[in-house]
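Open question from group meeting: does this chain pack into something compact, or does most of it stay loose? Before anyone orders reagents, we agreed to write out a predicted structure and look at it together. Recording both the input and the output here so the notebook holds the full record.
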Amino acid sequence: MTFSRSQRGFTMALALAMAVVMGLMLMKMGPSVVREVQRENESELIFRGEAIATALKLYAAKTGRYPTELEEVMKVRPRILRQLYKDPMTPDGEWQFITQVQAGASGNTKGLPIVGVRSKSTLGWSVHVYQNKTVPSDWQFAAEQNLLGVTDEIAKARNLLNGATGTAAGTTPAPGATGDKTNPTPKE
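Structure tokens returned:
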């Protein structure tokens, strides 16, 4: 089948118009694709960061100290972290460490106890809101929310007190418990 000269021109114009329309549709979809990739990366960041924070907490419970390198967490048996996760928000995958002791003037954290991680992402916005923050580099994934450990010490003190007397500080014993004069237990 042969086309006349005018039919070939029409087909070429139709193909060009279709290409322009498809290009415009792709340009319109571009931002939503970028947003979806951003959403997936942030979800993965939250998953990995929380997994590392939990592993750091378990490591400290097993060894009595925090690791100075993330690789130390992988040596604990049975495993407390599936793999040594990388930061999904950065090309190199390196984390910024949150240390138990503040780094010196140089900012070098090598050899300091690691209590958490945060992303080194340079993005100034996020799709997710995590810990009431909208910038991924502000999200902290730490073994202790209070990095000075004050809340942890209070919890330990309460547990000790609870184990010694049967009640925690600031609570009253249950009715019928030993020493309760208001509602003594009936004798058989």
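Observations to bring back to the group:
Helices lie at 5-63, 71-74, 150-165.
Residues 5-63 form the longest helix (59 residues).
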